[in-house]
Amino acid sequence: MSSISKSALAALYPQHLEILQQRTAEALQRGGFDHLVVPSGTLHYQFFDDRDYPYAVNPQFKHWAPLIRNPGSWLVVTPGRRPTLIYLQPFDYWHVVPEEPNGYWTEHFDIVVIRTPDEAQQHLPGDVARCAILGEPQSGIGEFAPNNPPTVISYLEYHRAFKTPYEIALMREASRIGARAHRAAERAFRGGASEFGIHLVYCQAALQDANDLPYGNIVALNEHGAVLHYMNRDRLPPKETRSFLIDAGASFNGYASDITRTYAFNRNGEFQALINAVDNAQQAMCAQVRAGFDYRQLHLDAHLAIARILHDFRLINVTPEVAVETGVSSAFFPHGIGHGIGLQVHDVAGFAESDRGGTLPKPAGHPYLRLTRVLEPGMAVTIEPGLYFIDMLLEELKDKGLGPSVNWDRVAAFKPFGGIRIEDDVVCTDGDPINLTREQFAAV
Ligand code: GLY
Ligand code: MN
Ligand code: MN
Questions:
Q1: What is the tens place of the pLDDT at every residue in 190-238?
Q2: Is residue 3 very low, low, confident or very high in pLDDT (cuts 50, 70, 90)?
């Protein structure tokens, strides 16, 4: 599938903007404010040092326009008016100065160019008390210190779960870049590259590096696949390459993809069969991304599915149901089934009970689930079941007296392969879900 055209984005953007305007009007009315004011954010510096951390734009800002490298800019939204973008274009010969605003979105804004951060003040609304200012504390300028009213934030963050068609198009593009880079990473793995080498191949294929990617690549060979957030990236290949787990995404116009694949070097061995079983189960879970379905149930169903695989592969000696009840399945699958995704790889408001606040609890015994809402059209979520051989958790089972539930010889046979995770980004619709990840893998 080829990349999205500027004209296609131009056609989708006005509806996105209209929806944001409507949401903002409602949020401001609920909070008793007249204006939404959003700083893009500022640079952070390392302690006792003059080095800055990579700039991360305020997500509330990039929701409106694909501006991800513009610290010191501001957005002002007043219901009934065109939004104003206060755009910092400093006189600076140390850094690249942001270019003139351009693209499909600019015609919808009143744009004021400023040359120093302080100039923004003259263009912000007259009465600061009437402003909901959303941002981090250090973004404040003069009396415009972020007040982050919870009523306004709860409303906007809750509704951010529902992506507009424009946002889905951007996420599809982030998935396209990710899928292409995953293919290149698999080829590097089959060629015997090191973790570091595979990482570089991935970055090259995506044309993105640490400052662009939505999260740090997880590139794990062999046993390293059992470390959920493995970040070491060995510089040398292992003596023997058996397996490869890669969790790596891509960004596009501020939106993320989050993709995991697991490969066996030997495509005819038992580890490949285990991957196939998890892959089949994962696709059945993706099919559960349907309007009205509770994501907590999806997570609990996934535990049973993983426990069935453990049973089929004789890794456990108890029934799948008993494995779930006793917590044995959690030792092999110790994280949540997924999370919302969009402007942030782990999108906000995963536990929001309503757009007025409140918390939907996690199921007892499942502390790492990040999304507890009922699925509705427009929601984009990841589906990422896993099955790992993690010493620490397996030892805990023994300590709890659950050792006899596990077939330790079989565990020993699989341990050199680390573990399996398969992760897709899936959009809930009125009908069949859209699997952004599989759609793009099928095309490259
Ligand atoms: N890559 C982080 C996650 O899968 O949630
Ligand atoms: Mn994820
Ligand atoms: Mn991931």
A1: 999 999 999 999 999 999 999 999 999 999 999 999 999 999 999 999 9
A2: confident
Task: Give pTM, 2 decimals.
Answer: 0.97
Spatial CA neighbour of 184 closest among 208, 216, 168: 208
Tell me the CA–centroid distance for residue 423 and ligand 3, in Å.
6
> Please, what are the domains in the chain?
6-159 (3.40.350.10), 165-443 (3.90.230.10)
C-alpha pair distances (Å), 277 with each of 164, 274, 419: 34, 5, 13
Q: Whose CA is nearest to atom 4 of ligand 1?
A: 258
- Give CA–CA dist 85/124, Å, rounded: 10
**Residue of 260, 337, 369 best suited for mutating to test ligand 1, as the one with most atoms within 8 Å of CB:** 260
Ligand nearest to the CA of residue 215, numbered in listed order: 1
Q: Which residues are paired to 189 by β-bridges? A: none
Are the CB atoms for 186 and 267 separated by under 8 Å?
A: no
Compute the half-sphere exposure of residue 280: CA atoms within 13 Å on the CB side of its CA. Answer: 8
Q: Cβ < 6 Å from ligand 1: which residues?
A: 215, 247, 258, 384, 423
Coil, helix or strand at residue 244:
strand
Q: 249 CA to middle of ligand 1, Å?
A: 9
Question: CA 97, CA 400: separation in Å to the nearest integer?
Answer: 59
pLDDT (tens digit, 9 = 90+) per residue, 355-379? 999 999 999 999 999 999 999 999 9
How remote is the C-alpha of 71 from its chain's centroid? 22
Residue closest by Cα to atom 3 of ligand 1: 258
Expressed in angstroms and rounded, the spacing between residue 64 Cα and the centre of ligand 1 is: 25
The number of the ligand nearest the C-alpha atom of 381 reads 2
- Strands in 100-232 per DSSP E: 110-114, 131-133, 218-221
Q: What is d(CA 263, CA 234) in angstroms, rounded to the nearest whole number?
A: 18
